[in-house]
Every structure is written in structure tokens, then in C-alpha cells.
Write a structure and sequence with these properties.
heterodimer; A: alpha+beta; Glutaredoxin; 5-stranded mixed sheet; elongated; B: Glutaredoxin; Rossmann fold; Ubiquitin-like (UB roll); 21 helices; 16 strands; 41% helix
């Protein structure tokens, strides 16, 4: 059974599909818009999107699961994406990742118990001259140390989402 | 007179606090009752000096950096608005040795102009290339690109003019210009810098391509990890429409060219051109089997140009200054300049644009200043996660497609990631396989299965299980992936692995686990 969406969320998804269905190759655009509105792509949105675009559920499911960026579970209030790629590894990204996991008490792809932070791995943020790097809710950080990582969390908790 | 102050809005500069510095300058100016014009430019690319603040003086732009918000009151006290002396003063920006010896063609305007201003773009040679192109025949435009020797800067280095010629020769009908802005290679950020710092150069390049082959629609496929570039591109596209450089009547020529940005969704493989086209169509980013080439059957089945940001961003200059001008830079079959990116464990990281022929050693030591940690550089990876690891004994190699191929390496998108002597090359080889497993589109077996088996084989080697036999197995596996994969992801993952094995064999030994 596909879990059903709340009436408000269903309306949001239907409105997004109606707005974008005329565009060439609209599925990724629709999924981006759904995630931007709801924070993730709920299972219950899949049939609505499929119906609206006149494609199969399998097709929508296949696209949602192909791309790392699309979340299938609600994120924490803030999403911390920590770069794991070579340039950041050259300056201690692995140690920083261990620190981040200890500090937040969660592994990658998980959300803290208080719902504040989701920790995600990311493969390159284009900040490679200032490694190691992370992005929180669209804000980029560079030359991170365990200390500045902690300061970053404090700062982000005090900021509104961008 | 109102003084103009530049503080970058480049994402990397922001990551080092440029936003707070800009705010502090505005506040301090207000407190002191000083009027100034604050321009948010792109980055000049010297990231070890960011946030780099520049002030326009009668003698030229004077630089201060790296500036923190706490430095701002002191800068005002030192009269930096008139180029005053201060411990952070770096003199005239253009005379800083790191910039002075570069040959900035593609990056001529990045960090110089306000990226959102069409007027500033035009005042700095912008739209001269398109103006010329509109006075030429389609064949002449394509010939100019062919004659320039420009090769695809995304990594494959295919002659750009040949792609264009193929698309031009297809029967009239809907054709597309697509820009591959899925800059996923670790150690690369030149596309991002150009899109944030001089987006109109890319827009102009795509418009020229559209005019050249008769395409009326362009798409920029941008990775989702680049929200700053997304904003910068959309602002610039809107400004270009307003000024009628895009739309139904480009520069009064009666020709149409429309352009929009489409976001990727975090799939490295979508940097491969056929996978990118699938993704642009809203599908899973799985590789297409070639032929047919995208130039013949590309986006939505129509003839399509797929070029990288650097390639398209260089086209306006070639049309403006001529093929000969560009071709006179470079060596051998590598013509023109290449924006190289110094990354990882490097003291002076950033963007260095030089003609082909500069050596890796010059880049690492003259520009880069050695490692950031002060330890010896042991290995560099050139060309992203699919590039070979190069040992110190080969640092005299020239930056040239053929010279790098000659030592079993590749140039790719020009990213150079530096590692000091604490690097564990067996771990890096394992990571290459792990990354391939995470990012494989799953279409072909050598990549999908081979990468996972690769991780397991390396784990056995590190675990001391039949090391010799497993090293041989790893080599055979790499050969299978190299020969049997459908695209560069599976087909090139062996490069970092086998180069690590070849040059750093001593690292592939059993470990005692803690």
C-alpha cells in the first residue's frame, strides 16, 4: 500500500504538476519542486506525479531513486552535507566525518534524535581550494576543522533556512 | 567622489566569510558617514587571499586580503578607500605575481566585473564575439571554431568545431545547444567560478553556438550542488533577455535563441554527455549506447551540441579576437589556454589560467607554493576521480593532452588535487572503486559489478589475504572495466587504481587493524 499524503500535501503536488507538465522533459523539475516545497519526495507523491504526467509509477520511482539528491524521508531542520571527495580527503575529510558523526551522534543518511540535523555525504561542492568543505541549507563552508564545524552548527541553528 | 569597493560573492569566497566582510564594510561606512559603491564580483581565483577586498584608485585596483570582519575598522582607519597602507595591503591587484604571470583569456573578466551587469560585460569586450558571428555565415563561424583548435574542456578533448560541423550538417529542424555544467570532478571549480563570476560569457557562447548551427533553444544542465551558480545564471539570463541578447530577436538579427537552466540531482554519471541528455529529458541518468552521436540524435532525439562550460565560455573570445589569436597559445595539438585548478593539500590553491605547456611542477610549486601542511608532496591526481595519480618523479610533465597521455595520465577538466606524504594510496585506490560503485548508473556490468568487486579485492589485499594473487586479480579486473564499460565512469576508474598500484606499490600491503 502506498501511504497517502495529507490533503495539503496532495494539493501542493497536484499544483506543481499542473504548473510544470507542459515543459519539455518535466519529471526532474517536478521532483525538484516537490522537494523544495515538502522537504522530500514522499512515497505518496509518486502516484500523483505519475498520473499528472501520464507516465507509470515505476518510471517516477525509478527516477526518484536514481538521484542522490532526492530524499524519500523528511529531513531534519538543517541538512549538513559533508564533502567526502578526494580534495577534501587530502586535508582530513575522513577525520572530519568521524568528528561530525560523533558530534551529532548519527551516521551518514540519518537525522539527529531532536530532528535538528540530517547528515549527508556529498561528492564535491566545488570548494576544492578551501578543503575540507561542507554545505548547510545551501550555505557553503570551507577549511573546516572540528572546532569550526561545531561553530558552524551553532551558527546554522541561529539562522533561518535560506 | 564615491569610491568603488569589490567584495566577491563567489561561493568559495563566501565560504571563507566574504558575506560578513561585505556587511562589515557597509556598516562601517555608514557609521563613518562615508559613501561607497559596493560591488559583489566573482573571485579572482586566489583563494588563499580570499576574502579579497579591492578598492578602485586612480592608479588601479588595490587589493587587501585575506580580510576578516574584525579587520574592517582598521582598514577604514588606514584609509584603504584611498589605497592606504595596512598589514593586509597587497598592492595593485594586477601586479601580484600570482596573477601577473597568468594568461587569462577565458577568465579575462572573472573577478573584474559585476557579473549581473550587461553594461559592464559589454564595456569589457562582451558580446563582441556574437556581433561578429552575426555578420558571418554559419559555415564561417564553425570554421573559426575549427581553426582555433579548441578542444572540449570537459575532459574528452574532442575538437569542438567537428561537433559543431556535424550538427550544422543535419537537416534543418529543432536543434539544441546544451551546456554540460555538471562539474562533478573533485578538485575542479572553474565552471562554477565562470558561471558565478562571468555568466554572460557562457550565455554569449551558447548563443553563438545556436546561431552557428541553427539551434533556437539552449539548456544549461547545472549540478544541484551549485546553488550560487544557479542564482547567478538565472540573474544573468534575465538581464540578457531584458537587453535583447536572448529571445526572439537576438541583437536585432531576427534570430531567436532561448536559454534556461535545468538542475541535476546529484548524480556524477550525468556529467557523461548521453547520461546528461537522459537527465535533461527528465529520466534516470543512464548511459545511451553510441552511435548515434548526440550531434545527430541528441536531446529529445534531435541534433544537439553538448559542450562544457569552459568550452562555450571560450567561444566568444575566439569569435571576437579570431581563431589565429587563440591558436597562437599552447603547444602541439593542445591549443589555447587552460584554466587549471589547484586543490586539496596546496598552500596557494585556486585558479591558474595558462597556455598549454606549463609544467605540473610550475603549477605545484611556483603557483601553489607546495603543500598546505608544509610536508613533501607525494602524489597528485590530475583530471578528477577518474584521473591517474602522478608521483613526484613525473612532476616535470607538461600540461598538454598528449604529454599526459604519454605517461598514462589524463588532463580531464584541469583539476589538480595535491596529497602530502601522509596519504595512503591503497586507501585512495579503494576510494576510486567505492566512488564508482556509488555513482554507477547500473547499465553495464563491468562498472556496476566490477567496482564493488574492486573494493572487495582491495580489502583482501589490505587484510593480508593472498596479496600477490589479489593484486593480479585487481589488475585483471581493471583491464575488464577499462575494455568493457560503456562510458568513462567504469572505463576510467581503473586509471587511479592502476596508477596507484604502479607508482605506490609499497602502500598495497597488509595492515594491522586497530
Amino acid at each position: 500500500m502506498t501511504p497517502t499524503l495529507s490533503a495539503t500535501h496532495s494539493d501542493t503536488v497536484r499544483r506543481i504538476v499542473a504548473d510544470l507538465k507542459g515543459r519539455p522533459g518535466p519529471l526532474l523539475e517536478v521532483l525538484h519542486a516537490v522537494q523544495a516545497s515538502l522537504g522530500y519526495v514522499p512515497e505518496g507523491a509518486v502516484p500523483l506525479v505519475a498520473q499528472g504526467l501520464n507516465i507509470s509509477r515505476a518510471e517516477v520511482h525509478g527516477v526518484v531513486t536514481f538521484y542522490h539528491y532526492f530524499r524519500r524521508t523528511p529531513p531534519g531542520k538543517h541538512v549538513v552535507s559533508l564533502c567526502r571527495a578526494e580534495s577534501c580527503q587530502a586535508l582530513g575529510a575522513d577525520q572530519l566525518a568521524e568528528h561530525a558523526k560523533r558530534k551529532l551522534g548519527v551516521d551518514f543518511h540519518a537525522t539527529t534524535a531532536d530532528g535538528e540535523f540530517s547528515l549527508e555525504p556529498i561528492y564535491c561542492l566545488g570548494n576544492c581550494a578551501c578543503s575540507p568543505a561542507a554545505m548547510v541549507d545551501g550555505r557553503l563552508y570551507g577549511r573546516l576543522t572540528p572546532e569550526s564545524f561545531d561553530a558552524m552548527l551553532v551558527k546554522e541553528q541561529g539562522l533561518k533556512k535560506s | 567622489m564615491t569610491v568603488t569597493v569589490y567584495v566577491p560573492r563567489d561561493a568559495s569566497a563566501l565560504s571563507l566569510g566574504a558575506g560578513d566582510v561585505a556587511d562589515a564594510i557597509s556598516k562601517e561606512a555608514a557609521v563613518r558617514g562615508v559613501e561607497l559603491r559596493l560591488v559583489r564580483n566573482g573571485s579572482r581565483g586566489a583563494y588563499w587571499l580570499e576574502p579579497l577586498v579591492e578598492v578602485v584608485t586612480p592608479k588601479g585596483r588595490v587589493a587587501y586580503g585575506p580580510v576578516t570582519p574584525a579587520d574592517v575598522p582598521g582598514l577604514f582607519a588606514a584609509d584603504f578607500l584611498n589605497g592606504g597602507q595596512h598589514p593586509l595591503a597587497l598592492g595593485l591587484t594586477d601586479q601580484i605575481a600570482w596573477f601577473a604571470s597568468q594568461q587569462r583569456l577565458t577568465f579575462a573578466r572573472v573577478g573584474i566585473i559585476d557579473p549581473t551587469s550587461v553594461a559592464e560585460y559589454v564595456a569589457n569586450d562582451g558580446y563582441q564575439g556574437l556581433r561578429r558571428a552575426l555578420a558571418m555565415t554559419q559555415q564561417e563561424i564553425v570554421q573559426a571554431v575549427l581553426d582555433s583548435g579548441l578542444r572540449g574542456r570537459g575532459g574528452a578533448a574532442f575538437p569542438t568545431g567537428i561537433k559543431w560541423k556535424t550538427v550544422l550538417e543535419q537537416p534543418a529542424g529543432q536543434k539544441y545547444i546544451t551546456c554540460n555544467a555538471d562539474e562533478g570532478d573533485s578538485g575542479t571549480f572553474s565552471d562554477r567560478m565562470l558561471m558565478e563570476g562571468d555568466p554572460l560569457a557562457l550565455i554569449e557562447g551558447m548563443t553563438i553556438a545556436g546561431v552557428a548551427v541553427g539551434a533556437t533553444q539552449g539548456y544549461i544542465y547545472l549540478r544541484a550542488e551549485y546553488p550560487h551558480a544557479y542564482r547567478a545564471l538565472n540573474l544573468a539570463i534575465e538581464a540578457a533577455y531584458q537587453a535583447r541578447y536572448l529571445g526572439s530577436d537576438v541583437m536585432g538579427s531576427g534570430k531567436r535563441f532561448d536559454l534556461e537552466v535545468r538542475l541535476g540531482a546529484g548524480a556524477y554519471v550525468c556529467g557523461e554527455e548521453t547520461s546528461m541528455l537522459e537527465s535533461l529529458e527528465g529520466k534516470r541518468g543512464e548511459i545511451r549506447v553510441r552511435p548515434p552521436l548526440p550531434a545527430i540524435k541528441g536531446l529529445f532525439g534531435q541534433p544537439t551540441i553538448v559542450n562544457n562550460v569552459m568550452t562555450l565560455g571560450t567561444v566568444p573570445l575566439i569569435l571576437h579576437k579570431g581563431a589565429e589569436f587563440y591558436k597562437n597559445y599552447g603547444m602541439g595539438k593542445s591549443r589555447g589556454t587552460l584554466p587549471l585548478q589547484l586543490a586539496g593539500n596546496i598552500k596557494r590553491g585556486g585558479l591558474v589560467e595558462r597556455a598549454f605547456g606549463v609544467t605540473l611542477r610550475e603549477l605545484l610549486y611556483d603557483y601553489g607554493g607546495g603543500s598546505a601542511t608544509g610536508r613533501p608532496i607525494r602524489a597528485v591526481q590530475v583530471g578528477g576521480p577518474l584521473g591517474a595519480y602522478i608521483p613526484a618523479s613525473q612532476f616535470d610533465v607538461a600540461i598538454d593532452y598528449e604529454a599526459l597521455a604519454g605517461i598514462g595520465a589524463l588532463l580531464g577538466h584541469g583539476g589538480i588535487v595535491v596529497f602530502d606524504d601522509t596519504v595512503d594510496m591503497a586507501r585512495m585506490a579503494r576510494y576510486a572503486m567505492e566512488f564508482c560503485a556509488v555513482e554507477s548508473c547500473g547499465k553495464c556490468t563491468p562498472c556496476r559489478i566490477g567496482s564493488t568487486r574492486g573494493v572487495e579485492v582491495i580489502d583482501r589485499i589490505l587484510g593480508g589475504v593472498e596479496s600477490e594473487r589479489n593484486v593480479r586479480q585487481l589488475e585483471e579486473l581493471c583491464e575488464t572495466m577499462l575494455q568493457g564499460s560503456l562510458c568513462g565512469l567504469g572505463g576510467m576508474t581503473p586509471f587511479p587504481v592502476t596508477s596507484a598500484l604502479k607508482h605506490f606499490r609499497e602502500d598495497f600491503r597488509a595492515r594491522t587493524r586497530h
